[in-house]
Amino acid sequence: MATRPFPWRSTFVVGFGFFGISIIWPLFNSLIPPMLADLGLSALVIGFILTWDNAINIFVQPLVGSRSDRTRTRFGRRKPWIMVGAPLAALFFILVPFVRQNIFLIALAILGVNIGMALFRSPTIAFLGDLFAPQERSKANGVINLMGGLGGAIALFGGGALYKRGVPLPFIVGAGIMLLALAVVLWRVREPAAGPMADAADRAPGVLANVRQLLKDPDRSGLCLLGAIFAWFVGWNAMEAFFTLYARNVLGVEVGTGTQMLTAFAAMLILFAIPSGLIATRIGRKPTILMGLVGMLAGLIVGFIVRQPTLLLGVLAVMGAFWALININSLPMVYDLSQSGSIGAYTGLYYFSSSLAAITGPIVAGGLVDLAGYSAIWLFTAAFMLAAIALMSRVRVKQT
Q: Which terminus of the chain has fewer Cβ atoms in its 10 Å neighbourhood, N or C?
């Protein structure tokens, strides 16, 4: 039986969801830490504040992902969550720079952004599992992450330039672009028809049931995979949280310039997004991810040594290519574990691991920075990439 051609055009439309999400977080992670530092907060406290979104995500995203599997409205299963969460996140994101001189008000604004984003991220990403067959998901995730990388690059480069013209500008423009991107998803994406809800299935605790399934796995592949995801996100979230402060304090460049340096990383993620999916389709997802982890580890060691901004720009670019090999193929591997009707729940488990990592990374790394200085962030991230290699080596996931 002939297989359908890959739906490139509709995949790019789905990718606008990740594009919108990826506009917000690079601006959040690169521009808010200096604001908090200007209030006199220590690196440890800054790291703690940056983990609030992930503390919320630990509870909200698995629940929302599972609930969206069982949502039935005339708009579909996933779209109602986008329609509620995105405007909420945009509103509070715009408020951040206007209240940045008051620790209480900026904390409330950050919290509002976190809650809004948590309400719609899992349902948006779950389209990958809803709309694509297992053998298509690496290629589809390559396209979706290309769109995400493009959003991240626009946010970092454009946000850095706008920040120099006026602190509120990147927040206002970023929120507007996010809403426009998600409007494209709401308008153009056609969700597959959901079957009738079975009473027994709907009473079952979807997230807990899926966790129990992973625990029963004899070779613990699911747990090792989630552990590897946790490890590599511990490292990279810590790097993202403190890179602009590293650039300012160690390299001696402005915050806006430090933000723009990360554009090289995002640019290579864009260029290697689709090739990463094609590579995994040919050689398998696990070998592709391991290749990316080894490359990231080498880049982090070199980055620790290099102190010249132009050379470091090149290192970040190479690391972006290796990060694409990891990031494009990890969620499709998680979906390989899922059963029919549980895509949202498994999306939630993926983000549970990454969110728990993003809590751990900035807090622990912030404490290390306070003790050993900003340069230690490179070795901290390298150690967790090494742990991810060890865990990923134990994963046995069926290739589809």
A: N
